[in-house]
Structures
1.
Amino acid sequence: MSAKFNFRSVNSCLLVFLFTFFTAFGYETDGSPSDNYRIHIDANSKKKAIVECEITLEDDKLYMSPIGANQFPSRWAHFVNDLEAWSMKGEPIKIDTLAGSNWKIHADPGSRIKLKYRINLDHEDFKWSGGIDGAAYARDWGVFYTGRSIFIMNGQQKKDITVEFDIPKKWKVSSPWTNSLSQPLVYSVNNLTTLSDSMFFAGTHEEYRIQRENFELIFAFGGAEIIVQKDKFTSMAEGIMDYYINLMGGVPNPSPEDAFDKSIVILNSSSNTDGEVIGNHISILLKENGDMMSEMIGRFIFAHEFFHLWNGKSFTPAGNDCEWFKEGVTNYYTLKALYHIGFLDKNAYLKTLNDLFYQRYDKDKGVGVYSLTQGDLKHDHWGLIYSGGMFAGIAQDMIIRSSTSNKNSLDNIMRHLYKKYGGTNEGYDLDELESLLSEASETDQAEFFKDHILGTKRIPLYKYLNMGGFDAEETDGSLLVQLKKEQNGPEKELSDGFFGVN
Ligand SMILES: [Zn+2]
């Protein structure tokens, strides 16, 4: 593993150096000064962040991200205190507080102003529907903020925003932003969306970086219990990353409108296991002294969210009617990845298929009522969209494999979509999926789509597993499945394909 550790070729080092040399931090590409944020955190009062910024006004509105913190009338501004503004000469500027996390500033567009405010890191005193992992929290070893929770912004067009940190000497910052090589705690952020969809951890945590081609995965590990397991996590992540790259034929290749070459995964110990993805980044909390199930869920969250950098970001559905493919097929490859790295054996894989997916499908009241194309229901009907989509993916994989003597599979569809849509702004649609799947299996899938994708007919998962060398039945709300005792050669190939071996 050490040979793979944090390598960078001499050439890419040189490129980074040249890039930094010619891109002066603090200026937009047209030479005008960019917006600059300075975040001060004191070791003795970790639960306060003082933010000072200099911004050039595009209009008279100041705002924080409109996503999240719905439980407060003032949204993210619930945690903002003592917001003040001045002209560059130091004259106070009036600010009116508006509804939500919005303000009106009494200064002319085009003028450059200073802002100062304090964020009280009290987010953990409140209930969060998605969990604290998507908001902000403090630990003994440092602080976690999402961009949403800390940045007050102005305008829409800002580029090359600078974020600087003033933190205790022993601390460091893990963030997905581009670091200035000459100034260790100064970062450049390409636009406001990237700023608000980001997250960072500042403290005495440990960091680990994995580089493949031009893509970098950054891990921040916090808490003694997590740090002792960091080798386990990083070898897991490298194994999963290499499995996905090999499957797809390359590193994530997002649309130019949402370009990224770094993802950060922030892992901290906590009282509960939870995970959230924001932008291209993953925040995971792992329960201290967690059991096998919470270990499984922590890894599952990582492998699922990470696969979205391909299935979701490199190729994207044009509409909600393909959410089942994005979420469900991702679940299928998540299990394959966890099998590939040896975290799950065959029995654990099949048990997870029942415990985590089949059970939720079977109990979901939307199954048989709504169709898989109703992706807008995915939060209320996880079982229908996430499990049902997974079962549609398994069914199609088995159909393709069995009708082509295992020459073709769902893997080919993934590679095709990645190749066709990676690096573009286009998305795939339902008709294209139907024709790709029909071509791959050399059998018309119109009826499958009519019944199980556009229609509301339950997917008989056992039937498709039995095509692939399993003995499966669905009894009393459970999926009972095992490998066929006496598999013939083709059956063995199909079941191996199901586990992601070929
Ligand atoms: Zn997902």
2.
Amino acid sequence: MLIDTHCHLTDQAILPDQAAVVQRAIAVGVQRMITIGTGPEDHLRVVDAIGLYPQVFGAIAVHPHLAGEIPSDFIAAMRALFAGQPRLLAVGECGLDYHGPSANAALQRPVFIQQLELARQLKLPAILHVRDAHADALSIMADYADVPHVVHCFTGTAEEADRWLKRGAYVGITGIVTYKNAPDVRAVAMLVPENRLLVETDSPYLSPEPVRKIKINEPAFVVHVAARVAAQRGVCAEALAQSTTANARRLFGPRLE
Ligand SMILES: [Zn+2]
């Protein structure tokens, strides 16, 4: 069995087909999925999804791209959702994304920090989105060493991965690992210790080979991600499935059983 630790089943590209997408995942052995809500409206769709499918769990947070568009009481609203929904397993995805000209670091940082405070108070793990912002994210996380976390869709260098691993982070590998032009991600997929590695799709984005540019990504395709990571590490698919599943359960807790 495999767990897709990061997907967006409430994205408009998947939502109309959601039930079939979940069934296709289960059919290939992806028996658990964590669907991520990126902003206040999406959080409600995530709550709907986790109520519909016993295999689907959720995480909610404000994505750094949306840091400028949130109501001032967003933390209170998230707290209320967590209180009523034991199947919401983590605060995520939150973090820093300095990619592109519209990125606003000054806006993103306090939103990130408020959510780490929430994770700490609720004793929940955090799912971090970090793009072109590893130094700042590492410096903020120095104050939150007690909040277990995964750096999802890791796209940093091997050296950056090493800094995160020394802090106790888990590292999430997506279908980028199958792309020709991604030697850094393959290097990271090899160096992460067996007990810190997670696999994910980040669907509907980042379809892996061999379905890249052919199909919209969905949790079933985490099979392709895992196969490539296993080949890269020289282990069999079954061993990789076992270790990454154990890691997901250690990070996200016994409710994921
Ligand atoms: Zn995501």
